[in-house]
Amino acid sequence: MSDRQHIFASGDKFSNYYEIDSLLERNHSSIAYKAKNTRMNHPVTIRVFSTTLDSEAELEVFESEARALIRLNHPNIVRFYHYGIFDQMPFIVTENLNGISLRSKISKEAPMSIAGASRLAIQICSGLQYAHKFKGADGDPQPIYHQDLTPENIMLSTRDVTRITDFRLSQLSSETDKGNSYIIPEELNENNTTGGEKADIYLLGLILCEMLSSPQLVERENFKLQTPAETNLIEETSPAELMGETNEILQKCLAEAPINRYDSMDDLGIALGSLQQTATLIQKATNYDTEEKYDLALETWRKASSYLPNNLEIPKRSIETEVKSLLLQAETQKAIGKTEEALEIWKHVLTLDPENTTALRLAEFGKLHLEINKLTEIVDQQKDKIQQLTSAKDDADSAKENIERDLIFKSDHVDRLEIDLGSFPEQIREQEEEIDKLTQAGKLSDSTIERLQAEIGIHTQQVQELTETQNKLESAKEELETQLETSTQSITKLEDDAESQTNQIQKQETKILEFTQAKEEDDQAIETMQAEIDTQVQQVQNLTQSQTQLVTASEELQSQLNAKNELIVKLEDDAETHGKQILDKEQQIQGLTQAKEADDRAVETMQAEIDTQVQQIQNLTQSQTELVTASEELQSQLNAKNELIVKLEDDAETHGKQ
Predict the structure, then answer these.
(1) Percent of the chain residues topping a pLDDT of 90
(2) Residue 299, class by beta-carbon neighbours within 10 Å (0-12 exposed, 13-18 middle, 19+ buried)?
(3) How far is Cα 508 from Cα 171, in angstroms, rounded to an integer?
(4) Rounded CA gap, 57 and 527, in Å?
(5) Are residues 268 and 262 in contact, defined by beta-carbon separation less than 8 angstroms?
């Protein structure tokens, strides 16, 4: 191998397919150009190496590695299109990426948050995992290691999607640049046998460390200063709760001995995933806490702790949030007058955070408030007792006044009784005189009484005689009333019988009239049904001629109609039976008519489907014609591509010989 460099200018032709647009970047081993594929007319990036390949073995190794790179297909790895030798200089063509390098982002945004830095690192890790597990065309493992991973070799899209570029090719690597910040200890110690996956892990650790550091950590002249002896490679992180886990990951990535680093990119990816998930959850929990959505914050803290169960800072933050939530609940209980419930909450806060001054102060306030409430209750009880005693005294005074009034009333009553007793002797004397007068009047009235008694005896005899006469008259009256009642009942019975017979006669006449009318209606119905049956028979015959599928049904209908014609004669004797049979016949005829209509609709539907299928066949025929035309065009293009491939192979063979 030998080194040579040639600078191409804008507009220069490169190989047979490319035209140089501008110079993108230049380092100690290669130059990158933005160019255009003149045949496909799309932009590409060409990296031209300064190392020439002086032997067939070197060329074979270069082509093998380049073919493997072209087969890489991952969203976090740049696409490799082409490789070759131009003017004795090896080159590789890749897609042209729009965006910025990770170096630019670090310069503007470092130190980055753990969530942001780990999200980018996880994407890089994913691409490298894919490359490390790559298999060749024969299915055998063919791992591809980058070994030149730097922020300059990581491109970012507008949405911060990472694309890994510039994999190191073994035959095109110049001597180790010991002034380079991104260099593994094995190369500084001139031990090239332990590179590979462990080297990529180390370099990715340096990138992650630089994203999280404010000053560039790796601007050093030698390896001894490159790995600090301190436990913490970074002193501040966002969020601060994850500083221990972050430094642990960095220390393991940047271990001087490869054996002490992560065993694989898979293991590093798992660690970074947990770190990113936890950082995101911590940010959410912090936002919820700020918005006083404490229930959501506590749930998010618990999720974050489940990712990193050994982290001691997250439970502390969770307790802080729970304390805030409890203090808010206690304040609410206090505001509605439930001081005892609030005091229990404050006590619970002190079990979580014994040094919480707010809870201590409020707990003391709660205790004093409860004591004041108890004293207030005692005072209120004493007031109630005093009020009850006052009320009892008022009642006693009122009772005393009532008793005094009763005594005065009774004293007055006694005085009145004494006055009344003093007047009793005079009243007795007057009553005795009145009795004497009544005695004398009684003696005078005795003779009058005897005379009146005699008259009463005479009148009594007359009354008895009149009573006997009245009894006889009442007996005669009762007999006459009995006879009258018997006659009345006989007359009523005769009237009822006559009315019943009249009603029966009227009912019989009505029935006779109804039967006569029913007979006439039946005769008319029979005639009408006969006409309808004749018409239906004619319709069935017409349907039989127009629809061959109903021949069997029509014959059965004709047989049923003949049987019904015989039954029509019997219908004259039994109108009810005849009506039912005629109704059955109408239903059968209606069913046949509906079947005919359904068949007609089915025929129309089938005709419509046939028309649709004919249209579809025409469309398919047209599409087939278009497909044949397109196939011929594609075959023509394929032939042109095959001719181009043959030409390219000839050109490649010619260049190989050169």
Answers:
(1) 24
(2) middle
(3) 130
(4) 116
(5) yes
**Rounded distance, CA 347 to CA 323, Å?**
11
d(CA 577, CA 392): 100
Contacts of residue 19, defined as CB under 8 A and 6 or more positions apart, other chains included, come to 11, 12, 13, 35, 36, 38
Contacts of 537 (CB under 8 A, 6+ apart): 558, 561
* Short-list 150, 143, 153, CA closest to 94: 153
Q: Is 81 helix (H, G, I), strand (E, B) or coil?
A: strand
Following DSSP, what letter does each residue of 415-473 receive, concatenated? Answer: HHHHHHHHTHHHHHHHHHHHHHHHHHHHHHHHHHHHHHHHHHHHHHHHHHHHHHHHHHH
Contact 554, 544 (CB under 8 A): yes
Taking the model in full, what pTM does it have? 0.55
Contact 359, 349 (CB under 8 A): yes
CB-based burial, 224-254: b 16+ in 10 Å, e otherwise: eebbeeeeebbeebbbebbbbbbbbbbbbbb
pLDDT digits (tens, 9 = 90+) for 41-74: 899 999 998 877 777 888 888 888 888 899 999 9
Answer positive or negative: Cα dihedral of 493, 495, 498, 503.
negative
Q: How many residues does the chain have?
A: 658
Residues 271, 242: Cα–Cα separation, whole Å:
12
Give me the DSSP letters along 278-290: HHHHHHHHHHHHH
**Least confident stretch, 27-31, 171-175, 209-213, 450-454:** 171-175
H/E run at residue 327: helix 313-335
Least confident range from 230-239, 317-326, 621-630: namely: 621-630
CA atoms of 272 and 122, how far apart (whole Å) = 6
Strand 30-37 versus strand 18-26 pairing type = antiparallel
Peptide bond into 315 cis (omega under 30): no
Is residue 1 scored above 60 in pLDDT?
A: no
Quote the CA–CA distance of 596 and 585 in Å, as a whole number.
17
Q: How far is CA 95 from the centre of its chain?
A: 44
Return the structure tokens found at 158.
Answer: 């507008």
The token duo for 445 is: 């009235």
* Non-local CB neighbours of 472 within 8 Å, separated by 6+ positions: none
| Model confidence pLDDT, tens digit, residues 338-368 | 888 888 888 888 888 887 777 777 777 777 7
Residue 605 CA to residue 599 CA, distance in Å, equals: 10
Amino acid 33: pLDDT: 93
- Mean confidence (pLDDT) of the chain: 74
Q: 371 or 293: whose pLDDT is higher?
A: 293
- Burial state string for 582-593 with b = 16 or more CB within 10 A and e = fewer than 16: beebeebbeebe
- What's the DSSP call for residue 240? G
Please give the DSSP secondary-structure letter assigned to residue 550: G
Distance CA 621, CA 196 (A): 60
Backbone angles phi, psi at 67, to 5 degrees: -60, -40
Rounded alpha-carbon distances, angstroms, from residue 456 to 449, 460, 463, 470, 538: 10, 6, 10, 20, 116
Nearest to 212 by CA among 177, 156, 251: 251
Q: Which residues pair with 141 in a beta bridge?
A: 135
pLDDT surpasses 60 at 561: no
Rounded to an integer, what distance in angstroms lies between the CA atom of residue 483 and that of residue 31? 152
Instruction: Check residue 296 and give its pLDDT.
Output: 93
pLDDT score recorded for residue 567 = 54
